[in-house]
């Protein structure tokens, strides 16, 4: 059996560097690499397969197979042993390839019946680029040293591919970061924008993957790790009195920074010929690969911590900090793996759009993006590895599509779409001051949702009649510690001042589920959407609720005040919360503070249980607002964060609309004012159907007021109601097709 020692591994890398240093074109350079790998590993065959598209691998270079098959042999991901390496990102090492699971014989390559097969993924930071394969006639399992040597070489090939070392003819050898790319994600905030890429965390580029002097590389690694450890210790000192969650993250950083196993693996990588930077990135790539396979949320977070720590170490080694010298473009579209609400607020309204590789529709970033009316697409795989600062980008928030470096045809069509939207906005501006009056004479009141002071100018510009929902939790989410009561008083005062006498509905702190405060101990609940959140937190932590109620009363300073409690599931919860309001009012009266001229206390109906509360509840509550986002997910038992199920259920489902009609009927009988708040209120077709069900107050994002008003003014709600009733009698599941047909005929 042939053994590959550490020195042989290093010799292979040195020969590889010589091959890279020549003036050969990309194809010739790749051919030379396969020759030297086959020679070094004493194998008859060495082949490099690279992706030509997301699903197809192409044979791009070979030593030992039919040269005519290069760029002609292709296979789908998962097909054959090579395709299985690509699909699962794992090494396949077998002495009996023809009998291995998934084997596929490829006669077009002219290959003989090779027994031994060793395939390793060519990947960089979790992104699969291709597969590196060696084969031999002798039935042998390659040694662990041989496997390691090939993995190291595969990593260097990945780095050099990133740097454009193998550019040639054909799709698989086309230059990276230059071709048009279409990426699909999930819509988190609607809108269509054009701009240029701004990377939140510029990618570190490793230009010297192979070590000149292993001893010097070890010294550099030790110096950088020591600097990293000192930096983490300093951050811990500063954070000792800060929030617990940040402290836990930094403790995890310190644990990894002092990990002997992490250090030993990087030292071994350097001993086998990698530079310090490449050794760090190799460990980072493996952590990212494991991250994609781990289901446990805690372990994923820890692997994410290690990934972040590796980035810090790479920046120390390369000197490539977050400040790259690049200037923020005039039309920036922010690209990031993920981003916190505080960081996003620092960019503010300067951003044209946001595209995240991770994130979620209910994340803090999504809440801020909606508040700032910035189009946002999340779950956009590969965006951080595909995009470069300054790249031309078009974000379609209506379709959840991102066009990176688009061609002229796409640019032309996209600009036409933006122009049409601009014309529509002009039309909406012309009806801004008109009432939303339907053709059958029904008045629908359109309100706006807000959560930041920056939202309030939209109250006048959009034509909204008031603020149907002011999310008070945003001021808690963007801080690293609990805001002071005086700060909240000042904020709420400015909100009421800016509203100019129009009604503002303040929703008390709605935290938990997908909105966890940075300084709040995580509960690690198995199903947080159904867990300890919103009013449940407020009643269990009454001190926070009282502090917020005091701030609201003092901010009103004698003016009318409207307060709404979120996620009320039963009458008792509302009664307990209302009792806290009464206690706070009495305390403020004794302290001599001015009490509100009028105080309305309502609740959000977000759970089906509240729709069936005793009549006494409907008699006592002063107003109700249907929280459509949560109510819909609980009605259909479909998690709105889960892409597999959330799109299966339509708001215009007959059962759901019938349920809405029941709520409307109960409120009409008791004379309880009712509104609908949620994403569906801002979608014109859904909005007219909700109005047809009897809802006369809809609250939405400011940009939706114009489109919703425009459609309401064109329809007859009696017609819409009849369409819904007829669809119910026919046993149809959704009324959408019938309503769309009616609207087309208008």
What does the model show?
It catalyses: L-histidyl-[protein] + phosphoenolpyruvate = N(pros)-phospho-L-histidyl-[protein] + pyruvate. The chain has four domains: 8-163, Beta-Lactamase (2-Layer Sandwich), CATH 3.30.450.40; 181-199 and 328-420, Phosphohistidine domain (Glucose Oxidase, domain 1, 3-Layer(bba) Sandwich); 214-318, Enzyme I, Chain A, domain 2 (Orthogonal Bundle); 431-745, Phosphoenolpyruvate-binding domains (TIM Barrel, Alpha-Beta Barrel). With 746 residues, the protein is of the alpha/beta class. Mean pLDDT is 84; it is low at 1-5. Strands 7-14-13-9-10-11-12-8 form an eight-stranded mixed beta sheet. An eight-stranded parallel barrel has the order 16-17-18-19-20-21-22-23, surrounded by six helices. A six-stranded antiparallel beta sheet has the order 3-2-1-6-5-4, with helices on both faces. It has 28 helices and 23 strands. The chain starts with 5 loop residues before the first helix and ends with a helix. 46% of the residues lie in helices and 16% in strands.
List the uncertain runs.
1-5
The strands making up the biggest β-sheet line up spatially as 7-14-13-9-10-11-12-8
What's the N-to-C terminus distance?
80 Å
Q: Per CATH, what is the topology of the largest domain? A: TIM Barrel
- Residue fraction in strands: 15-25%
CATH class of the largest domain: Alpha Beta
Characterize the largest beta sheet: strand count, sense, and whether it forms a barrel.
8 strands, mixed
Catalytic activity: L-histidyl-[protein] + phosphoenolpyruvate = N(pros)-phospho-L-histidyl-[protein] + pyruvate
Enzyme class: transferase
Keywords: Cytoplasm, Kinase, Magnesium, Metal-binding, Phosphotransferase system, Pyruvate, Sugar transport, Transferase, Transport
Family: Belongs to the PEP-utilizing enzyme family.
């Amino acid at each position: 059996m042939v053994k590959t020692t550490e020195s042989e591994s290093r010799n292979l890398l040195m020969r590889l560097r010589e091959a890279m240093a020549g003036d050969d074109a990309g194809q010739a350079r790749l051919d030379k690499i396969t020759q030297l790998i086959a020679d070094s590993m004493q194998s008859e065959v060495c082949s490099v397969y690279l992706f030509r598209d997301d699903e197809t691998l192409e044979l791009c270079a070979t030593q030992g197979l039919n040269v005519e098959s290069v760029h002609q042999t292709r296979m789908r991901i998962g097909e054959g042993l090579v395709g299985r390496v690509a699909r699962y990102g794992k090494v396949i090492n077998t002495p009996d390839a023809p009998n291995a699971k998934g084997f596929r014989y490829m006669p077009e390559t002219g290959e003989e019946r090779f027994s031994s097969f060793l395939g390793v993924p060519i990947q960089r930071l979790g992104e699969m680029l291709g597969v590196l394969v060696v084969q031999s006639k002798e039935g042998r399992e390659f040694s662990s040293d041989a496997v390691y040597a090939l993995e190291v070489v595969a990593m260097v090939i990945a780095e050099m591919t990133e740097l454009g070392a193998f550019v040639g003819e054909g799709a698989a050898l086309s230059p990276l970061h230059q071709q048009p790319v279409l990426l699909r994600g999930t819509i988190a905030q609607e809108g269509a924008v054009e701009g240029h890429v701004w990377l939140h965390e510029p990618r570190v580029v490793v230009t010297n993957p192979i070590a000149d002097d292993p001893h010097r590389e070890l010294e550099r690694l030790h110096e950088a790790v020591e600097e990293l450890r000192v930096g983490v210790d300093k951050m811990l000192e500063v954070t000792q009195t800060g929030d617990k969650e940040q402290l836990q993250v930094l403790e995890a950083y310190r644990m990894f920074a002092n990990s002997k196993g992490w250090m030993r693996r990087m030292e071994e990588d350097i001993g086998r010929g990698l530079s310090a930077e490449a050794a760090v990135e190799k460990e980072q790539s493996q952590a990212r690969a494991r991250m994609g396979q781990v289901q446990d949320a805690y372990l994923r977070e820890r692997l994410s911590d290690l990934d972040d720590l590796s980035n810090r170490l790479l920046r120390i080694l390369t000197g490539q900090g977050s400040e790259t010298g690049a200037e923020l473009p005039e039309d920036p579209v922010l690209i990031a793996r993920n981003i916190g609400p505080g960081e996003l607020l620092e960019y503010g309204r300067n951003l044209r759009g946001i595209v995240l590789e991770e994130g979620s529709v209910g994340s803090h970033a999504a809440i801020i993006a909606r508040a700032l009316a910035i189009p946002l697409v999340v779950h956009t795989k590969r965006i951080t590895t595909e995009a470069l600062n300054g790249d031309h980008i078009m974000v379609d928030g209506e379709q959840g599509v991102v066009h990176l470096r688009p061609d002229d045809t796409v640019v032309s069509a996209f600009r036409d779409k933006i122009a049409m939207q601009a014309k529509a906005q002009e039309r909406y501006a012309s009806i801004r001051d008109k009432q939303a009056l339907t053709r059958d004479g029904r008045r629908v009141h359109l309100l706006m949702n807000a959560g930041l002071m920056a939202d309030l100018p939209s109250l006048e510009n959009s034509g909204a009649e008031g603020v149907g929902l002011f999310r008070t939790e945003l001021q808690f989410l963007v801080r690293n510690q609990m805001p002071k009561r005086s700060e909240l008083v000042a904020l709420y005062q400015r909100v009421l001042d800016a509203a100019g006498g129009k009604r503002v509905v303040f929703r008390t702190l709605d935290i938990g589920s997908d909105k966890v405060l940075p300084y709040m101990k995580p509960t690690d609940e198995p199903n947080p959407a159904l867990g300890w959140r919103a009013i449940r937190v407020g009643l269990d932590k009454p001190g926070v609720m009282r502090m917020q109620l005091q701030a609201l009363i003092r901010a009103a300073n004698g003016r009318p005040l409207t307060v709404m409690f979120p996620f009320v599931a039963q009458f008792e919860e509302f009664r307990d919360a209302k009792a806290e309001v009464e206690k706070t009012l009495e305390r403020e009266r004794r302290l001599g503070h001015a009490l509100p001229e009028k105080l309305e206390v309502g609740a959000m109906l977000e759970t089906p249980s509240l729709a069936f509360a005793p009549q006494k509840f409907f008699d006592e509550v002063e107003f109700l607002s249907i929280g459509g986002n949560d109510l819909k997910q609980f009605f259909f038992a479909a998690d709105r964060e889960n892409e597999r199920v959330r799109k299966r259920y339509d708001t215009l489902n007959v059962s759901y609309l019938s349920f809405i009609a029941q709520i409307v009927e109960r409120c009409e009988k008791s004379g309880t004012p009712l509104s609908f708040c949620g994403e569906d209120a801002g979608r014109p077709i859904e909005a007219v159907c909700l109005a047809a069900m009897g809802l006369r107050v809809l609250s939405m994002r400011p940009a939706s007021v114009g489109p919703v008003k425009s459609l309401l003014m064109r329809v007859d709600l009696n017609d819409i109601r009849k369409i819904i009733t007829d669809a119910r009698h026919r046993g149809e599941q959704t009324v959408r097709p019938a309503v769309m047909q009616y609207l087309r005929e208008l």
